[in-house]
From TrEMBL, chains A, B:
Annotated GO CC locations: cytosol
UniProt binding sites for substrate: T49, E120
Organism of origin: Caryophanon tenue
EC number per UniProt: 2.7.2.4
Name assigned to this protein: Aspartokinase
SUPFAM superfamilies referenced in this protein's UniProt entry, alphabetically: ACT-like, Carbamate kinase-like
GO molecular function: aspartate kinase activity; ATP binding
Domain of life where this protein originates: Bacteria
Amino acid sequence: MIVCKFGGTSVASATQIQKVANIVKDNTARRIVVVSAPGKRSSEDIKVTDLLIDLADTALANADVAAKIQTVVNRYEDITAELGLGKDISEVIAQDLRDRVAGDRSNKELFVDSIKASGEDNNAKVIAAYFNTIGVPARYVSPKDLLIVNDLPERTFAVAEAYERLAVLAQSEEVIVFPGFFGYTKDGILRTFDRGGSDITGSILAAAVGAELYENFTDVDCVFSANPKVVNNPAEIKEITYREMRELSYAGFSVFHDEALMPVFKKDIPVNIKNTNNPSAPGTRVVPTRELTGRPVTGISVDSGFSTLYVSKYLMNREIGFGRKLLQILEDEGISYEHTPSGLDDISIIMRSNQLNLEKEERIVKRVQQELQVDNVYFRHGFSMVVLVGEGMRNSTGLAGRAALAISKLGVNIEMINQGSSEVSLVFGVQQNYEDIILKALYEEFFSAVPV
Amino acid sequence: MIVCKFGGTSVASATQIQKVANIVKDNTARRIVVVSAPGKRSSEDIKVTDLLIDLADTALANADVAAKIQTVVNRYEDITAELGLGKDISEVIAQDLRDRVAGDRSNKELFVDSIKASGEDNNAKVIAAYFNTIGVPARYVSPKDLLIVNDLPERTFAVAEAYERLAVLAQSEEVIVFPGFFGYTKDGILRTFDRGGSDITGSILAAAVGAELYENFTDVDCVFSANPKVVNNPAEIKEITYREMRELSYAGFSVFHDEALMPVFKKDIPVNIKNTNNPSAPGTRVVPTRELTGRPVTGISVDSGFSTLYVSKYLMNREIGFGRKLLQILEDEGISYEHTPSGLDDISIIMRSNQLNLEKEERIVKRVQQELQVDNVYFRHGFSMVVLVGEGMRNSTGLAGRAALAISKLGVNIEMINQGSSEVSLVFGVQQNYEDIILKALYEEFFSAVPV
């Protein structure tokens, strides 16, 4: 059994949905189809999700929503008319939207969530209806009472019971069409996944039914070894381990959200990232383990927006508890960090800059000064992390040296190097403005040069 | 005013003490002389401190101590006779030892400390007496009521009041001869410094009197840029910053104990490491700041005996508080750590192996598994840390690459690289058995090659 998920551009129009139907028909193992809301049909188009956010905002402003609802319904009608589905389903969608707008507004965020989630929910109804008209027995299934999520205020995740309940879907005679992006609490409150969206729904379902494969259909043929916007024609990745994927998705590899991998990762279910517009392309397989190729580096990613908190104190490394107390101060501010390179008497804590503001920084600096009696403490901003990832790096001597030399040939200083004791990744911290030339140089070094 | 400290080999014999006297006479700014106990006169000799430990053990075993006391007294008599000091001082030393042996044994450690410390104390009396015979007005000063240290059980350090009290020594008309290695609590209990010994006494005195210079006399001409037992004729270090010295003394540079630098470091007092046997050699100056030379690396040190605790968990870096909780577990076992290189989903904590044993390791692994729900956790042993140190490294691009390549040319894997965001050091973790060939290769790269 295969669970397949189709992203926004894969279900944006009748033509696209017809491609989806062909893909599902092509392999009878594809029994569960997770769908997103209709995405953009062209770069100037507006996603249904954005229309829905606009509708929710209008409702919360107590302005007239009729026209906004009609805009959304029209968008679906463009699809249903071309698919030959008739007018009934438009009325179902219009009524659904009116019901949601009339819903509980006591928690504004949940109200907006409910309206946003209609994008996936109604699209699943449309696609299930269409499948039936072309001879694919299909059934829309609501996440309600199945995909159970935790209560507020923690961010949304599927509770253990969700997996038990969703397992019944494996028994269905019909193809299941399931909306991505949201679940319901035990009390029936709709909550959306804030990260990974429909990817995570597909991953949860694949894990719940014990799928042999989770296919993630998007609009690219594969995952590339480097950002194609920076590097010309980067190598395609045929096979990649969960761990490599996770380390790459850290920075710049947005094809598949890393948190979405968790449910399938735990069950060792392979993932195939494929292109709805070119389904015969093999795509990229994400697997628990893989055979090593001659190439030690699988991919190179870059992400900007990092800051460092630098702290120095004479004899720091003799002071038991120093690092722990320092991390506690950051934790008290709700800040997560990425790396902590250290000398004997100094440590740099690297974190994403978007967690900081001037007040927080001042509070942290003051506390570090007062509570830890340090010699020096300050923030620095504007760093990028360049990450080389590859299972083959573990046993490859000279790789760090080659990478560092390739960077330094550019005349660029390496601010930070971090390589752990059992790593499939090597991280360089550099000044943000050099990230593109560094990515190009590293790609050249590890992918274009004569293979070692 | 100069405070000068003479190590064990510098005061091991009459000939050596005569050299000390000449050094003190040579510069009238040398007003305070801190002395160690007589050290070895040859490689087969026994240090007075070791004779005293034997005496203390004999006393604690309630065996006859007379012969042991005589051995110590004889050792001093070899010196005093040659210095022409007469027999009186031998009786002073013998009586002092009998008094100490008859002292309080309720705390065995303090009893041993008291006997051990007599080595420095009596040698200071001998040297002060000798100075007076050669026309250098001098006075032995006891640390009692001056060098006040903290109470048990924390390890020994000078309390703030010690600096105030010791400041009066600046006013002395006579040269002060002060024993190194110990102080007294407010209640008059003798306690020894467990690390840095006489070096730290000299540093405290230099800070207390606001000396212009702290001279640390030992038996080498200077600090070398690498261990001369491994590298042939390593370059001499003429000038080095506190910080470089500290990072180097971490591993293999035992000339001057890093904790001993603290008091002078806080007062920006320069230190000159010199050779009693070759006082005209300029030695190595340890200074707050220095001008950069063309050489980015000042020294390379290596130290073995490190272990790593490897921990991996999917999505670790999203978990606020993970690192802090992990460090807390180590802290609960009283373990201090050196570095924490990390990937996204894993972290290695590097620590000195001598803090571990099988039981501790099992407890730690079990707690990490249970409390942090990790995917993987284990210890690895047998690592060395290779540290490149230099103020010039901060602005030197390509250095990390050069170093990593020099290591990888040996076919040796680099287990860990750690470079911070504002560093004067670069740390490589390697397998212990390769440390010598790596030191040689790095020395070759940064000191023997054509300067960059």
